[in-house]
């Protein structure tokens, strides 16, 4: 796609990968959405190759996403989430506001499994859907609003997960610093976590953390900020946001480390470009 900075704004385009892969798609010349920034080489991409999962792209080509809504259960195979929608049957994206002050992108998707079956199908046969609105500002900061249209009874969902999408030919250790994540609270206390330390599942320090920075090997590093107050979900109640990790020792023996590449990280090689 377009490289480098330009005037701030969003536009429809067609982002190419390679000919054989591109030829699999029956699409127009404008299936994807691209957001660029006047004072930064950072990009925000909604690409059909990721099922339109929004990805931030650093100046040196490292992709990053804050995940999507995901659920699981006996009514679906594995997980139900938009990345299972390889052909973008249900996932679509559109620009609904595009001014010098801000860009607003609407991403809508179904929670479906790899066989395109919906999760939590009720009497109406509709299953669960999500509308996401991404409000992007010229300083490369955005606000994400997620609206889940859920079925009863309520079930567990993943709402956010900080995911690094590897460039072609790269492995996790090539693009992530050894102290991979920095958690920060409103007092400015910082704690850095390294996967070399065989992390536990919980990330308890610093107390009251509500900001998480992913330390990529790039000038620009992605972060999330969530409200610092109490959190209540169907999984439990916490006094402040709860951070946890796919730790190195959790990944062992679960297929999260494709051989023969050694890595401190658990990682997959099936997404985004595979169509299986």
Describe the structure.
The structure is a single chain. This protein is mainly beta and 276 residues long. It has 2 domains: 1-161, no CATH class; 172-257, no CATH class. It has helices at 19-22, 172-175, 248-251, and strands at residues 9-13, 32-37, 40-46, 54-57, 63-65, 71-72, 79-80, 92-98, 103-110, 129-136, 142-149, 163-165, 176-184, 190-194, 211-216, 223-225, 231-233, 236-238. The strands form 5 sheets. It has a 6-stranded antiparallel sheet, with no helix packed on it. It has a 4-stranded antiparallel sheet with strand order 8-9-10-11, with no helix packed on it. Strand 3 (40-46) and strand 4 (54-57) form a beta hairpin. The longest helix has 4 residues, at 19-22. It is globular and about 50 Å long.
Task: Please sum up the structure shown.
The protein is mostly beta strands and 276 residues long. The protein has helices at 19-22, 172-175, 248-251, and strands at residues 9-13, 32-37, 40-46, 54-57, 63-65, 71-72, 79-80, 92-98, 103-110, 129-136, 142-149, 163-165, 176-184, 190-194, 211-216, 223-225, 231-233, 236-238.
